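Reopening this ticket.

The earlier resolution said the output was attached, but the attachment link was broken on my side. Pasting everything inline this time so it's all in one place.
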Amino acid sequence: MTVTTPPMSLVEARARLTRWLAKHSIDLLRVSLGMVFLGFGALKFFPGASPAEDLVARTLDTLSLGIVSGRWAVLMTAVAECFIGLTLVSGRFLRAGLLVLAASLVGIMSPLVLFFGDMFPGTPTLEAQYVFKDIVLATGGLVVAAKALGARLVP
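Inline output:
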């Protein structure tokens, strides 16, 4: 005689999915954010490869009152973004990576204030769209930081 298990009900399936999402979704968010930071950061090591290169140089030049400018500004940003990406992907030194991310967000979002007229001469420029995507990265970083600091997602 074979024993068959009854089919899973929709309620049971939903409960399993909810538990799986609660267990894994923030880690998946962390890794995907890390891959984005790593990808965009790596581009900045190669002159002309990043569409944000000029914006990065101009922003850091303005924020540092001319102390950090040009290629050095872009390289510093590349190192910071790659560090953030590696910590998010690996989960190692995560708090340090999140601290660098928090500090970087000032620079990441500041073009919206510093160069608003240039970024929105009517419709948003490509640079404005580039900065806008960072709003999503920032809020994702907040979720990852909440978990790193002890918050739990409970189904």
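Reporter confirms the inline version is readable. The chain has one domain: 21-148. The chain has a mean pLDDT of 92.
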